[in-house]
Amino acid sequence: MQKKALVTGGSGGIGSAICRTLARDGYYVFVNYSRSKEKAETLAEEIGGEAVFFDLTDSTSIKKAISGIGRLDLLVNNAGVSEINLFTHISDEIAQRILSTNLSGAMCAARCVLPAMINEKSGCIINISSMWGEVGASCEVDYSASKAGLIGFTKALAKETAPSGIRVNCVSPGFIMTEMNKRFSDEDLELIREDIPLGIFGEPRHIADAVSFLASPAAEYITGQVLAVNGGMVI
Ligand code: NAP
After folding, report:
1. Domains of the chain
2. Does the beta carbon of 127 lie inside 6 Å of ligand 1?
3. What is the pLDDT of residue 178?
4. Measured from the CA of 176, which atom of ligand 1 is nearest?
5. Is-contact 40 10, C-beta < 8 A?
6. Does the structure show a pLDDT above 90 at 181?
7. pLDDT, average across residues 10-20
């Protein structure tokens, strides 16, 4: 039977690379979107998968969509939002949006897929955190907190679900060229590049390859880990 994967934020830069790579690996891929319906539908058509709407800030929307999908072999919690500003200038509304999209939405999605995985005694969850979740970023405090939360979530859930044959891991990207980073000026980008020991920005495929590895039998003895894919920017 064909394996099934759900990728949240599958319509985005890193998410679409993950969807394509998982389709190449033989998965039937559910491409989640909240606003980018057309992008998700075009991608789903290209890879022979399915576009699925749900909004990670709305747990009712998540539960309804995932119950319609049925049993999954793999959940990739990839969707995320960020906001660059001083901590004291972030409104309650934006802070809430960052935390619910990046952390509580991911936890809710995992809670929805787990009962069927536990029943089958197999499954895999991969959370996309960030190097800022490991070391913290000035002017991205809420984002860093949400991504650090995903790391704690990964470790705790890995311990709880390992006896049920489920692996939970995290990929922690460095600076990856996507829409999320289009706001930086050329000057800023050059300064950031100088901080990357390998001297180049990451590409979405670098994260997709890490997800593909962690989901594969080659990683069958790996759980609760954070795989940093950052060109050496955080060591
Ligand atoms: P992106 O291109 O901006 O994509 C973000 C994705 O998140 C979009 O598909 C978007 O879908 C989805 N999303 C946002 N709000 C959502 C919501 N409420 N419900 C469902 N989906 C929602 O960003 P990206 O660079 O690919 O980032 C992907 C992940 O990697 C994020 O978690 C990000 O924090 C992490 N990351 C990125 C970098 C980087 O340098 N790019 C570095 C470290 C970590 P819609 O457009 O359909 O709403």
Report:
1. 4-229 (3.40.50.720)
2. no
3. 92
4. 40
5. yes
6. no
7. 97
Residue 180: the pLDDT is 85
pLDDT at 194: 96
- Range 147-165 average pLDDT: 98
Question: How many CB atoms within 10 Å of residue 188?
Answer: 11
- Taking the alpha carbons at both ends of the chain, their separation in whole angstroms is 40
pLDDT at site 208: 98
Catalytic residue flag (residue 143): yes
Give the closest residue to 8 by CA, choosing from 71, 70, 60, 57: 57
Report the nearest-CA residue for atom 41 of ligand 1: 176
Is the shortest distance between the CB of 100 and ligand 1 below 6 Å?
no
Q: Is 181 in the pocket of ligand 1 (CB under 6 A)?
A: yes
Q: Are 49 and 28 in contact (CB under 8 A)?
A: yes
State whether residue 39 is helix, strand or coil.
Answer: helix
Q: How far apart are CA 216 and CA 202, in angstroms?
A: 22
Is ligand 1 within 6 A of the CB of residue 190?
A: no
State the catalytic residue, choosing from 27, 28, 33, 143: 143
- Cβ(103)–Cβ(200) below 8 Å: no
Sorting pLDDT into bands at 50, 70 and 90, what band is 223? very high
Is the pTM higher than 0.70? The answer reads yes
Please tell me if the CB atom of residue 130 comes closer than 6 angstroms to any atom of ligand 1. Answer: yes
User: 23 CA to middle of ligand 1, Å?
Assistant: 19
Q: Which residue's C-alpha comes closest to atom 1 of ligand 1?
A: 12
